[in-house]
Amino acid sequence: MSGLDARLVVRRGAFDLDLELAAAPGEVVALLGPNGAGKSTALRALAGLVPTAGGHVRVDGAELRPLPPERRGIGMVFQDYLLFPHLSALDNVAFGPRCQGRRKGEARRAAAAWLDRVGLADRASDRPRALSGGQAQRVALARALAVEPRLLLLDEPLAALDAHTRLEVRAALRRHLAGFGGAAVLVTHDPLDAMVLADRIVVVEDGRLVQQGAPAEIARRPRTDYVARLVGLNLYRGRAAGRSVTVADGTGDGHVLDTLDSLEGEVFLAFSPAAVALHRSRPDGSPRNVWQATVSAVERHGDRVRVTVSGPPLDAAADVTAGAVAELQLAEGARVWVAVKAAETHVYPA
Amino acid sequence: MIRRPPAVLLLPALVGLAFLVLPLGGLLARAPWSTLGTRLAEPQVLEALRLSLVTATLATALCLLFGVPLAWLLARVPFPGARLLRALVTVPLVLPPVVGGVALLLALGRRGLVGQWLDAWFGLTLPFTTAGVVLAETFVAMPFLVISVEGALRGADQRFEEAAATLGASRWTVFRRVTLPLVAPGVAAGAVLCWARALGEFGATITFAGNFPGRTQTMPLAVYLALETDPQAAIVLSLVLLAVSVLVLAALRDRWIGAG
């Protein structure tokens, strides 16, 4: 099998990682997860920087697990780039080719070509400290690609950048990843980076894979509270019987929500906060799910206001206009009616 | 408003300062400035100075050659007994140098533990030779280098070494092209301390290498000897030693040790 095929088992004290990971040549896989989930550890295990307790790391069919990092032929871009401060940008990029036994002149020519590709030909003689964050990121990428790896690893490649630079660098990184023929694994805690850069997202929580799929699939059908929060959806787990889903409400009976999707058995039910309407008195009219809850938080969220309501029976996030907040006098502790149209809900098998 | 420092701290500080500076002032005040030129040109003085500079530099080179790898071992390779080894390395730091000289004699002397074989197999005799001076100085000065370099290695960000490894660098290449350049200031500081310590070495040198003009009589030995026969010469020699030390420290301090 070509590309990456790995099972990473790492045990370190109470922390325990067991993750299967595959990436086809040309595919970009993002490991997405909260801090401490084990994403970076997984990446370091792939690179050979963390000893594994079991599993395998195969790249293009070759078993790399017994090999030390320097013999794995894997390119890695580190979170804060780790450009060698005593070497120029050019010599940083030439470092890998030199280690592969190429002559100095040849290695430098190759490095110059890589710097040119990332658009930094004019900064070749600069030391890393003279480079901006975005430039350092591109040099780090060129340095990792210069060893012509079959697997490219990127550890939070955009985390060290300010918001504006991030946008530019993300677009450039996307271009370079598209031009890279090998498998690529990217670690991030930013769902946007994952959505833009990856062909497939693997969500990791507590050292385990909890969900994977194409970015659009992850965004539409979250399977854990963490993913639901990341993609900004209200998520409930329940039991479907036709067009009703019974969701646990903390009392035991369960709260029944109506949907248009007809399913049977264990399901997830999701809807957007924008689909939630809040009322002071019980609304009536078109078929909708209605329940009464207490406002627990009100905060600005872009040009809308994010209102969090707590049950029982159900918690939910609602995005409303500032006008609605004033009109409904939505302060913490206020009792409101929550309404969600059946057509706005989305149900999929658990 | 500038607050006056409390007298309880200021007074001892000034006494300490005076105590450190006063002897140097004495040296300058009593120097025979009128005959300084002719005395400095005396062959014994020049010979002792040359020998001191050469042996101290050679000793520093030996310290670098063996001390840097030793520091790397202590800082980077976990092994059982590392704490004990670290303690052993620092023993020459606290050992009276004369005792160091005696110990060197017992190990490398003609009838010493290793010395007898050097003598029998290679006809190599170390005590009472210029090589013996270099060894005595190396023994006393090496801990300064090891401690300084080990500290620098521990302070250096090891993730640079990981980055180098992912680029295909062997451990030796990582050491040569990444680790060493990163800790260069620490190595330089250690080498300067090491050189200064070697230049001033007296006890171990006179015990292990003796006091033969032109061969083992370094500046400190010459100063001590002159003090008994010709105090004026001792002052001149001391001045030279002081000047050399201050010059070297001043030249290197700003560049490598940083504004402390």
The helix/strand class of chain B is mainly alpha
**Count of the domains of chain B:** 1
Structural class of chain A: alpha+beta
CATH fold title of the largest domain in chain A:
Rossmann fold
Largest sheet of chain B, described in full?
none
Main β-sheet, spatial strand arrangement of chain A: 6-7-8-3-9-10
CATH superfamily of chain B: MetI-like
Q: How many distinct beta strands of chain B? A: 0
- Strand-residue proportion of chain B: under 5%
Shape of chain B: globular
| Topology pattern of chain B, helix = H, strand = E | HHHHHHHHHHHH
Tell me, briefly, the overall form of chain A. Answer: elongated
* Name of the CATH first level of chain B: Mainly Alpha
**CATH C-level label of the largest domain in chain A:** Alpha Beta
Q: Biggest interface, and residues per chain?
A: A-B, 24 and 19 residues
**What would you say the CATH architecture of chain B is?**
Orthogonal Bundle
Organism (chain A): Actinomadura parmotrematis
Pfam families (chain A): ABC_tran (PF00005), TOBE (PF03459)
Protein name (chain A): ABC transporter ATP-binding protein
Domain Mop (chain A): 284-349
Describe this structure in words.
The complex is a heterodimer of chains A (350) and B (260). By secondary structure, chain A is an alpha+beta fold. Chain A has two domains: 4-228, Rossmann fold (3-Layer(aba) Sandwich), CATH 3.40.50; 232-349, OB fold (Dihydrolipoamide Acetyltransferase, E2P). In chain A, 26% of the residues lie in helices and 37% in strands. Chain A is built from nine helices and 18 strands. In chain A, a hairpin with a 2-residue loop joins strand 9 and strand 10 (208-213). The two termini of chain A are 30 Å apart. The model of chain A has no long low-confidence stretch (mean pLDDT 86). Chain B has 260 residues and is an all-alpha fold. Chain B has a single domain (42-257), classed as MetI-like (MetI-like fold), CATH 1.10.3720.10. Chain B contains twelve helices and no strands. Chain B has helices spanning 7-29, 36-40, 43-76, 82-94, 97-108, 115-122, 130-155, 159-166, 171-199, 203-209, 219-229, 231-257. In chain B, helix 7 packs across helix 9 (171-199). The two termini of chain B are 27 Å apart. The relative contact order of chain B is 0.15.
